[in-house]
Amino acid sequence: MIDLREKITSCTFFQDNEQFVKEMLDIIVDERKSLEVEALRKIERKDKYLADQRAFELEKLKLQAQNPPASVGDSPQMDSGPMKLDLKTVLPTFIPDKDDLSLLLTMFERQMKLLNVPADFWVSHLIGILPSDIGRLIAREPEEMFKNYAHIRNILLQRFKLTVSESFSVDIRNRIIPLGKISFSS
What we know:
Strand content: under 5%
Protein name: Transposon Ty3-I Gag-Pol polyprotein
Low-confidence stretches: 74-79
Organism: Trichonephila inaurata madagascariensis
Largest sheet: none
Radius of gyration: 40 Å
Order of helices and strands: HHHHHHHHH
Helix content: 55-70%
Oligomer: single chain
Structural class: mainly alpha
Number of helices: 9
Number of strands: 0
């Protein structure tokens, strides 16, 4: 490196053209300054991006703290008020002609207990997952009995116990004795 410097300074071309050398040095200095400025801008952009990311994450954490997601287990936040959940995705769709209501109610009760939903809100959640005609049956109950899940459960079981057992017995008869296979002639 030192040899190169000595060769350049001892060269007559550079000694005779001071203006050229000065311009070349100015260009080199300007290029280095512009590279330095660009590097500083790049660092500033990166710092701004990181600051924006941190602000976004902080805002996200604040929103999560205000509205915690529904989680399973005992949590002091769960007891503060009614839960927001979509039982239609958790429980199967109830078809009155085919499904067993007691099984649906058992699964419903387990979900409510698992999510720590207060018993006062069980009936309103139950209406949301049942077909509208069954919901109307529940809505006809007196207001003082409306929040009583045990009462509503008994009404539903009494109403649908016969229809489920009747449809079950008809289904069994159709499986055992297909239509048109029995003749009473001797």
